[in-house]
Specification:
The protein is mainly α. 62% of the residues lie in helices and 0% in strands.
Length: 204
């Protein structure tokens, strides 16, 4: 006969460790918060001129990470990887506003032989920004922009932002990584937030 666990057995069971995506959020929260505050301090949705500068910073970052969406290791984990890219849509947004495309970066953020763990950290920031874009899209609407003009890259995925994010985090949480890989994921995400912060400063 199987004996059901007692309440004390349940209480003494080790707690379930947080998922990798939850740990990554906690480990990058301070860096992310600094970036968000810097972006909003520039008042990007007060007028089209401010918004264009925000777009230029976003464009520079999405240009940085565009190579991730052709990364063979990431594609093996995420079959829809190529369909997640937004580089072309933000270029169209800049054209809508007759805003210049930022010059190419002097130094690329990473080399051609980018390991999967670091790439996942960078992708976490790129994909995560789509969740925050839900609020930004509404703010863009107040200055007359939408998914057809000026705010394409902020528009949600047809399947919904939440589902699109859950599909990504399911892969992020289960990708096989060793201890060194866990550290590289965090380092990659922090580097991505800092890279975007640099673009915001450069376009201010």
């Amino acid at each position: 006969m199987t004996v059901a666990p007692t309440d004390s057995t349940k209480l003494n069971a080790p707690p379930t460790p947080p998922a990798r995506s939850q740990r990554l959020k906690a480990d990058t929260m301070a860096t992310h918060d600094v970036l968000d505050k810097r972006i909003m301090a520039s008042k990007p949705f007060d007028n089209p001129r401010n918004y264009a500068r925000f777009l230029q910073a976003q464009y520079a970052f999405l240009r940085d990470v565009d190579a991730l969406y052709e990364h063979a290791g990431l594609a093996a984990l995420l079959p829809d990887l190529a369909q997640r890219r937004r580089y072309a849509s933000i270029a169209a947004d800049l054209r809508d506003l007759d805003a210049a495309l930022p010059a190419d970066a002097a130094e690329p953020p990473f080399g051609a032989e980018l390991d999967v763990a670091t790439a996942l950290g960078w992708l976490y920031v790129s994909e995560g920004s789509k969740l925050g874009a839900a609020i930004l899209y509404k703010l863009a609407g107040k200055i007359g922009l939408d998914e057809h003009h000026g705010a394409r890259h902020l528009a949600g995925h047809p399947d919904g932002r939440a589902r699109h994010w859950r599909d990504f985090t399911a892969v992020l949480d289960t990708a096989p990584l060793d201890a060194a890989g866990e550290e590289r994921v965090i380092a990659g995400a922090r580097a991505a937030f800092m890279r975007m912060h640099g673009h915001v400063e450069a376009c201010a």
